[in-house]
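Need a sequence for this fold. Nothing fancy.
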């Protein structure tokens, strides 16, 4: 798997620029195209012409990393709609977690929640400055048929990284999805489960099987700088009532989090029919 197109959202804030820098590093590593999109929930009076600033940023990144960088023109349909249009043609959408802040009614979730739920491609939420390639990738496994695609995507995203497969098993012993990868040798893979961390064992003994919390514990234990999480698409009400694992995970860890929809690890041309992507205005 190789990235061909990476889309990064920015409003020129410090957190957003960390996400842009990470997107540029990944695009350069994969020799991919980088697309920048101005995505601000509220207009900042400091930027009289944000599109001009975006184009200047694109030129800077292009010279620095030696890759093609394009400043996209949003269609003016709002942050979510414009981001989804860009993501429909991409292999990865990169943003920071600033769009999670603020109070939102259950019928109007925050921008980050909507993008995590609706994006046709994997979404990388950057929480730390990009200081080189990822070194330790923690992949959350389940027994779903989409696990092979999830592992391929996670392993190929940063080929030099150590990959650790984590399964929050409700019973002692490795799950089928874990056993399926004991023979994988193309990445440096380590297998772990919820029983390796003391606090996780307590959770299981009292019946708590909270994947987000278990991942927080494991990330703290091993010092992973990227967590990769598969995502089953559910209805808006179901996600609201149960709580989205990815959003709760982002509240508990400081590392970056990559959310891969179970139908989103394929190439863009294989999933264009899943998302309506009208032309840019």
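Here you go.
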């Amino acid at each position: 798997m190789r990235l061909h197109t990476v889309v990064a959202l920015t409003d020129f804030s410090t957190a957003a620029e960390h996400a842009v820098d990470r997107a540029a590093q990944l695009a350069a590593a994969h020799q991919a195209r980088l697309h920048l999109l101005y995505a601000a929930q509220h207009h900042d009076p400091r930027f009289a012409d944000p599109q001009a600033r975006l184009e200047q940023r694109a030129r800077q990144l292009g010279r620095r990393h030696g890759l093609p960088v394009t400043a996209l023109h949003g269609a003016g349909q709002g942050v979510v709609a414009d981001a989804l249009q860009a993501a429909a043609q991409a292999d990865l959408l990169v943003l920071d977690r600033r769009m999670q802040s603020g109070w939102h009614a259950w019928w109007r979730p925050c921008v980050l929640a909507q993008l995590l739920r609706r994006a046709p491609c994997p979404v990388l939420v950057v929480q730390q400055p990009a200081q080189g390639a990822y070194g330790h990738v923690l992949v959350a496994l389940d027994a779903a048929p989409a696990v092979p695609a999830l592992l391929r995507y996670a392993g190929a995203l940063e080929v030099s990284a150590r990959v650790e497969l984590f399964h929050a098993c409700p019973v002692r012993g490795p799950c089928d999805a874990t056993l399926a990868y004991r023979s994988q040798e193309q990445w440096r893979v380590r297998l772990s489960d919820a029983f390796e961390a003391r606090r996780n064992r307590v959770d299981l003994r009292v019946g708590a099987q909270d994947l987000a919390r278990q991942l927080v514990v494991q990330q703290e234990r091993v010092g992973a700088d990227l967590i990769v999480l598969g995502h089953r698409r559910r209805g808006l009400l179901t996600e609201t009532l149960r709580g989205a694992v990815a959003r709760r995970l982002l509240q508990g860890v400081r590392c970056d989090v990559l959310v891969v929809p179970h139908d989103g690890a394929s190439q863009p041309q294989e999933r264009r029919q899943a998302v309506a992507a009208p032309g840019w205005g």
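For context: The chain has a mean pLDDT of 78.
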